Structures are given as C-alpha cells and as structure tokens.
Amino acid sequence: MLCTRAVNFGTSRIARAAGLSALALAAAAACTSYEPQWATGTFYDNPVGSLALTLSPSTLSLQPGASQTLQATVTPAGGFSGPVQFEATHLPRGVVISGPELELTDAGTPLTATVTVTASADAAQGSAQVMLGVAANNQATEAALTLNLGSPTITAQPDSLTLTLGADQSNDVRAVEANYAGAFTESDTCAGVATVAQTADASGNPSGIFAVSPIAQGSCTVTLADSQGNSVAVPVAINPS
User: Fold this and answer.
1) Portion of the chain with pLDDT greater than 90, in percent
2) What is the four-CA torsion angle of 113, 40, 38, 143, rounded to 10 degrees?
C-alpha cells in the first residue's frame, strides 16, 4: 500500500467519498510514515490528480451573532474530476462554515464558490486559525483561514470635534477598529452646518478618515460605521468666528 497523507475533514464523510472501508482505514494506520498535521489521517491508494485551494480573503473579522463570506477557489489538475465538498476543522465554539458542492472537470478549470462563516451569539471570542478544505473521491487539500472573533471595538479619533467658523477649513475624524479590514461609511445630521467627506487612501480607495468642514454655527452628529453594523457617534460643534 502506498501511504499518502490526505486531509480528513470529518473521517466518516471523507472515507465514504473515497469508498474506503473501516478495514482499509485500519490497515492504513499501520503506515509509519504518516505524520498528521491537523486532523485524523485518512489514507488513499494511488490518488489520481490533485486539488489546489485558495481563499480570498484569508482573514475574516467576525462578531458574535454575525456572518461573513469569503471566496474559495478550487483548481483541479492531473486529470482530477468529480464533485468536491467543503469541510473545516479547528473551528472555535459556536462557529459554523458552509459551502456548496462543486463539480470539477479534468480540464484544470478552477471553480469559485462563496463560503459562509457564521458565529453564534455565544461564540468563543479571540483569534483562531481554521483549516478549510475540500475533498472528493481519492484526493483532498486544505488552506488556512484566520478568524478574529470579538466584541465590536469601533472608536473615533478624536471622539468629538469643535470647529470655529473662519478659522478652521476642515478637520478629520478617523474610524478605528481592531481586527477589522473592511470599509467604513458615515451618516450625519450636519446639513447646513458642516460638510462631511470621506477621504481616499494612497491607492485611491475610500479610507476610514472623514473630513468635516464648517459651514454655519450649530451642532450635529457624524456617525461612523463598519460593514458589520457597528457604529460610533461623533458630536460636532461649530462656533462663531
């Protein structure tokens, strides 16, 4: 028997997909060259072709009770074909990952699927590395996904603004959130009092910095938000010249 390490994302499902019997699995366990890295080993005879898996993004920030998606691209090679299923291990408590079944051909054409990561309201918080993989027939592969789970930490710097007509052309307020790499947006009640404009970063993409320019004496509120529904309110006061 050729002892080849392959990923087991849940022994029974992968064993069934490979058509392996309990006796075959037991025999494979005798292979001394097997060194499991992150899951129970499953061994296959003479695997045909290969699979490659890439994730975008490979890091997700997730709050308890929320969901996020990523794109998983599976590329077959060497004559591999057939259906593949997504599985995951090393999931934190309360986190579920799901993805569709893909039908791969032997033409080496990659397929991309949307994979959903969902955290329950009582999910364990912190940073964790999850192994996401696909398996089918006699082959499997894996890729690492970093999950940052925690309570919202969005803040504004500064947390309030006071501007003077005639003296201040504009002032910036910045949205800051740990373990968050997504976009920020703003809403405000500043019509007739001040204008609020989102600035661009060095690449020309919207940044987390917003320029507030005074128009007339008064007060208003600028609310900065992330894409996960978390927000922070910044009071703005415009004084006379």
Assistant:
1) 41
2) -20
